Amino acid sequence: MTNSTKDIFRQNLKYYRNKAGLTQEKLSEITGISNDYLSEIERGKKTPSFKRIELIAKGLNIEPYLLFKPI
């Protein structure tokens, strides 16, 4: 069974956030995206806009496409 794009995104978000040594709270401060919203993204409850995806990638210091590439 393959993961959906949404599942890959949320798993990668958590992976790259942890790899960068950031908590959801710190990533929230860096990106300007609320901590609650980031939590909901990681739990699959919300789907971010392209603008937020770009903010998240910039906050993680990675290219946006990496959030969609299976690890």
Stated plainly, the CATH topology is called 434 Repressor (Amino-terminal Domain)
Low-confidence stretches: none
Overall residue-averaged pLDDT value: 94
Query: Which word captures the global form?
Result: globular
Radius of gyration, in angstroms, nearest whole number:
11 Å
- Order of H and E elements: HHHH
CATH architecture: Orthogonal Bundle
**The level-1 CATH class:** Mainly Alpha
Strand content: under 5%
Number of helices: 4
Summarize the entry for a quick read.
The protein is mainly alpha-helical and 71 residues long. The chain contains 4 helices and no strands. It has one domain: 434 Repressor (Amino-terminal Domain).
Description:
This protein is mainly α and 71 residues long. The chain has four helices and no strands. The chain has one domain (5-61): 434 Repressor (Amino-terminal Domain). Helix content is 59%, strand content 0%.
